[in-house]
Design brief:
Elements (H helix, E strand, L loop, with lengths): L18 H19 L12 H5 L3 H4 L1 H24 L1 H20 L4 H13 L3 H12 L2 H32 L3 H21 L13 H24 L4 H23 L7 H4 L2 H29 L12 H29 L1 H19 L6 H27 L7 H28 L2 E4 L2 E4 L1 H23 L4 E4 L2 E4 H4 L10 H7 L22
Antiparallel strand pairs: 1-2, 3-4
Helix pairs in contact: 1-7, 1-8, 1-9, 4-5, 4-6, 4-7, 4-10, 4-17, 5-6, 5-7, 5-9, 7-8, 7-17, 8-14, 8-16, 10-11, 10-17, 13-14, 13-16, 13-17, 13-18, 14-15, 14-16, 15-16, 15-18, 16-17, 17-18
């Protein structure tokens, strides 16, 4: 195997923090993750009113949601890789800065174009969560790594669940612009707290930033997600929808070919193809689907008039508050996932979480006639989501070099995002094609809701099967490691960027003339 002519970089162990400081770091990063995740549901209570508020059509107003989705998909792999290279805390500041700027643009908007631009900027802030997970792995004491990452990973779901009732309360009682001033203020608070309490990670990856790869994956994802998001409006058989799907597949195929050949890829596809990473990411996709299905179905069921015979007649605010306990359950059950991971391994946690999600949707097939029943099955579903989401970072971390922590978790978060986009399209089609007449309107039927629950239940079962295919892991210290890695001597270095460049027949950047300070990665915990 060819080898680099330069000596390998000097390994430096990650800095760890005192227990009291560790608690503060976890709280600050989890708060920041929740603030970022709020952007998912911030405008949901306004969707019906947006065309009138912005003086536009419903089709144009829907871009307020689509723009955030597309920007988040582009941001996650790109900002995660930048964080691995130039400092995760530094790039978190960029994420929050864009989130603040986008919130202010939206707060000052009264027309659709600046509103869409602001929402796109907010979407770029979604890259914070995988970066926060990376910081936790790099600086937390080993015994705290699993529980810390579990809470940070679950913050994506917690923020989305809590955002709906909070946004509904604000939208009903104040001018709608207050939503965006509030999101700017929360993001600014998160930025200040991180600047004061969160240290920079000492771990850096080698090489140059893959700009071509970043542009390629961005174009491919935008094509695919745009087709998924707008297919219902344009028609699934229309030239625009089919053309975007075809373009997305072609661009991503070319991107994959390029990434396999470039010496410093944005996403190391060879690492991604490892069974631990591959099956975890596939499980993330279908669990993302299952999570978003709940957000689409339950609020509609709650708000339909009782006169339909199955609607529960709740107001927008009441429906949001009924969904809120689900967010609280995620906060409770993500630490439980860390405990299971420490004792039984993250694979067990992921399987258990998937089974609990499936059980929750199974309850939803029959328990839809009273408000308390909806609370019960939504809490079961969100508990399972918390357990599953919290297990994923530990599975990913055990299979990738520490210098690729943020990038690997960014790809995992991206898979969840693709899952939510797919759910939006699939559940939308199901509900649109299973309707009943109420007065002069066509509304989703009870059979349509149950079909949606059944599809989500099937997705959760598929996630459990995918999790079962992950190679066995066993607990060690603060989390778990793959069995193959556990056989290595304690303290041995993980594969460095120089090693991987040599294996590809190239030379790692920094081995020939780049004197920017870097550290190699070491196994954590």
């Amino acid at each position: 195997m060819p080898s680099s002519t330069a000596p390998p970089p000097t390994a430096a162990p990650p800095a760890t923090v005192a227990r009291g400081s560790a608690n503060v770091i976890v709280a600050v990063l989890a708060f920041s993750g929740i603030v970022t995740a709020l952007m998912q549901t911030l405008v949901v209570p306004l969707l019906v009113q947006l065309p009138a508020l912005l003086g536009t059509t419903s089709a144009n107003a829907s871009w307020v949601v689509t723009a955030t989705l597309l920007a988040a998909a582009v941001a996650m792999p790109t900002t995660s890789r930048l964080g691995d290279m130039f400092g995760k805390r530094r790039i978190i500041f960029v994420n929050l800065g864009l989130l603040i700027a986008g919130s202010l643009v939206c707060a000052l908007s009264d027309s659709v174009v600046p509103m869409v631009a602001g929402r796109a900027l907010q979407g770029f802030g979604m890259g914070l969560i995988p970066l926060g997970i990376g910081v936790m792995r790099d600086v937390m004491p080993p015994e705290r790594v699993a529980s810390s990452m579990a809470l940070m990973s679950a913050s994506l779901g917690i923020g989305g669940a809590l955002g709906l009732p909070a946004a509904a309360l604000v939208a009903q009682n104040f001018d709608w612009h207050v939503l965006f001033y509030a999101s700017a203020a929360l993001a600014a608070l998160a930025l200040v707290l991180i600047a004061v309490f969160v240290p920079e990670s000492p771990v850096r990856s080698l090489g140059r930033f893959d700009l071509t790869g970043s542009i390629g994956i961005g174009i491919g994802l935008v094509c695919l997600l745009l087709a998924l998001s707008k297919g219902a409006d344009w028609g699934w058989g229309s030239g625009s929808t089919l053309g975007l799907f075809a373009a997305g597949v072609l661009v991503l195929a070319l991107w994959g070919r390029y990434e396999l050949r470039t010496p410093e890829p944005l996403v190391d596809l060879r690492t991604t193809a490892r069974p631990e990473v591959l099956f975890t990411n596939l499980a993330a996709l279908v669990i993302g689907f299952a999570m978003y299905a709940m957000s689409l179905i339950a609020p509609q069921l709650l708000q339909l008039p009782e006169e339909t015979g199955y609607g529960l007649g709740q107001s927008m605010v009441a429906a949001g508050l009924i969904m809120a306990p689900g967010g609280l359950m995620m906060m409770v059950f993500s630490p439980l996932s860390a405990i299971i991971t420490k004792s039984r391994g993250p694979k067990t946690s992921l399987i258990l979480g998937s089974v609990v999600i499936a059980a929750g949707y199974g309850l939803g097939l029959v328990m839809v006639h009273e408000v308390w029943q909806v609370i019960v099955f939504t809490c079961v579903v969100t508990s399972g989501i918390a357990i599953a989401y919290a297990a994923m970072p530990t599975l990913i971390m055990g299979a990738v070099p520490q210098s690729e922590t943020a990038a690997a978790n960014g790809l995992n978060a991206l898979m969840r995002s693709i899952g939510t986009s797919t759910a939006g399209a699939a559940i939308g089609v199901v509900l649109a094609n299973s309707t009943t007449t109420f007065g002069t309107a066509e509304v989703p039927s009870l059979a349509g809701f149950r079909t949606g629950f059944a599809i989500a239940c099937g997705a959760a079962v598929l996630a459990a099967v995918l999790a079962a295919l992950i190679p066995g892991t066993r607990p060690r210290g603060g989390g778990a490691v793959p069995a193959a890695e556990a056989e290595a001597e304690p303290g041995t270095e993980t594969e460095t960027e120089t090693d991987r460049a040599a294996a590809r027949g190239g030379v790692a950047d920094g081995a020939a003339g780049d004197d920017r300070p870097r550290t190699a990665s070491r196994t954590a915990g």
